[in-house]
Amino acid sequence: MSGSVRGGGTRRADAQRNRERILQAARDLVHEPGELKLNAVAKACGIGQGTLYRHFPTREDLLAEVYRHEVEELVAEAPRLLAALRPLDALAAWFDRVAAYARVKRDVFAAIEAATWQDLAAHSLGPIGEAVELLLAAGRSSGSVRPDAEARDVIVLISWLSRLDDAELDARGPRLLSILINGLRSPIQRDT
Q1: How many Cβ atoms from other residues are within 10 Å of residue 191's Cβ?
Q2: Containing H/E element for 156?
Q3: What is the mean pLDDT of the chain?
Q4: For position 1, what pLDDT does the model report?
Q5: Whose C-alpha in 65, 103, 161, 171 is 20 to 30 A from the C-alpha of 75?
Q6: What is the pLDDT of residues 81-123, one digit of tens each?
Q7: 58-191: CATH class
Q8: Which element (helix H / strand E) includes 88?
């Protein structure tokens, strides 16, 4: 099997597509009321349960990977936004993406055991902190972000988004993130 995963090789294209479909279906379904059922995930993405279990032997494995995938996408968004936007605008756009991440984080962490989510949270803090620092450093360098802004401060503030239910996140999330952006602006930027 030349295209299969063996000793770190590449995945077959259809296996990778199945994996992505499973993750997307689980991401969508974890938000639904009640416990996430693996058979519902398999049905939602049109694959057999055996295929799902080959990728994710347990429900917790699947949910952990949904969260890891969400973190990877969030982190990867920072340099893409910086390449396309001015630093403060990139930070604001990234915060819009953080709101979606907060929903997934809340739903996944509610569905898995405390020991697992604590481990996931600890592992995601570094990459998310690096993405925040990349955005802040670009803003400090351009003069649009205050020089004393630290990634840890931003992470503490945005972490509260995952504690909000959907209605409150929809109602307050954009305003809270706008307040945060305004607080991160350099004093020079506020005066212009």
Answers
A1: 7
A2: helix 151-159
A3: 87
A4: 39
A5: 171
A6: 999 999 999 999 999 999 889 988 888 888 887 667 777 777 7
A7: mainly alpha
A8: helix 87-111
The three-state secondary structure class of 185 is: strand
| Interval 96-106: pLDDT, tens | 999 889 988 88
Whether the CB-CB separation of 106 and 63 falls below 8 Å is answered with no
Q: Which two tokens stand for residue 85?
A: 């936007």
What residue ranges do the domains of the chain occupy?
Answer: 1-57, 58-191
* Burial annotation 174-185 (CB, 10 A radius, 16+ → b, else e): eebbeebeeebb
> 9 or 66: which carries more pLDDT confidence?
66
- Predicted structure pTM score: 0.80
One of 3.30.930.10, 1.10.10.60, 1.10.1040.10, 1.10.10.650 is the CATH number of 1-57, namely: 1.10.10.60
